[in-house]
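In this section we walk through a basic example: taking a raw amino acid sequence and producing a predicted 3D structure, encoded as discrete structure tokens. The instruction is simple. Fold the sequence below.
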Amino acid sequence: MGIRAGSVGLRTVAAAAAMLMHVWTGGTALAGGTASATKASLSGDQYRTTFQLDLTTGVTAEIYTLANPYRVIVDLPDVEFELPDGTGQDGRGLVRTFRYGLFAERKARVVLDTTGPVRIERAAMTATPDGKGIVFAFDMVTTDPASFGLGTGADKATEGADAKPPPEKPPSDPAQPRRTGKAVVMIDPGHGGIDGGAVSASNLLEKDVVLAVGKELGRQLAATGRYDVRMTRASDVFVSLDQRLSLSAKHEVDLFISLHADSLAEEHGARVVRGATIYTLSERASDEQARRMAEKENASDLVAGINVVDGEGDDEVKSILFDLMKRETANFSADFSNALVRKMKGATPLAREPQRAAAFKVLKQSHAPSVLVELGYLSNPEDEKLLNSPAWRKKIAGTITAAVDTYFAKRTAGSPGP
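The resulting token sequence is shown next.
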């Protein structure tokens, strides 16, 4: 057991790792199995800040830093987080906030947003006095941008994200793409794992809401017997935007439905604005709210600690990509959006302008019609109640299923669309 780090603070961390190896060979560490993280805290000031994570057993930690924005990334294998709600929301010293969760199968991640460039010092894992747990801690100290450079560990940031995600198998195994004669529908629950998405006042997480709706939608679509249903994720794990697009292309899907739940700040009418919105792809946003929403969703890889190189991220959806899209694909996306609005109207509140468009990266698909459904606003008390209701989730999944039926029935009949 030990700690590995990037070149920032390499000597200091390497020395700590050597010391750890000596401690663990003394027999105080608990080997094997999955560790639980039970407490996380920050201490210190704007010159030196310590991050501490209490674990039930020792693991091998990897620590590195990334720039644009400045972040410290901690990767931990086989760790489950059992931390109190709200952990990480309040920063201290050099850390603004931090978040945690699954980054890939059997790989947990902590991402700390720092106030500026930092250097890692004094990383260590030590046994608790009673010998029943492990305290993992490291110090962050200020450094200058020139010394920091572009950040370390950029190659590590995408490990796991480039691997195949571990989706579950309901109602068909996505690991084996095949044509069954049925229309292939891919459900894409947004966010996941370390990327919780929007959060309500009562700490209801977007990633949990959309996963629950996505699973119910998959169940209802499969129950019709008409669709080969795939999911980009069927558990609480992070899936990068590139992975979602790759899965859609790999399975040659006929329809891609991305599920999200919105949230607004107080200055934008958080407690007043409510209702579902359906987005389609457009190089130019239909309005300012749509532009902000696409910008926020396209930044999810940064939230999860992936280093987005120049030319990627928010700017990747460029004019040339839209020129490559088949006109009929864009038209079919609009057709399905129309069907969704018609079916959802009366079943759930809709936003004042329920159909919008913007440059969402996850909708950058030339091979398949695609929409992004914002199911409601977690920042609105009434919407939050609906989003947290199993009965409503079942109902909204039913309306989306009905829209899928209508869409494919008219496609099969040769109609121009709903």
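Looking at the output, two observations stand out. The first strand starts at residue 3 and ends at 5. Residues 1-32, 153-158, 161-177, 310-318 have pLDDT under 50 and may be disordered. In the next section we compare this with other chains.
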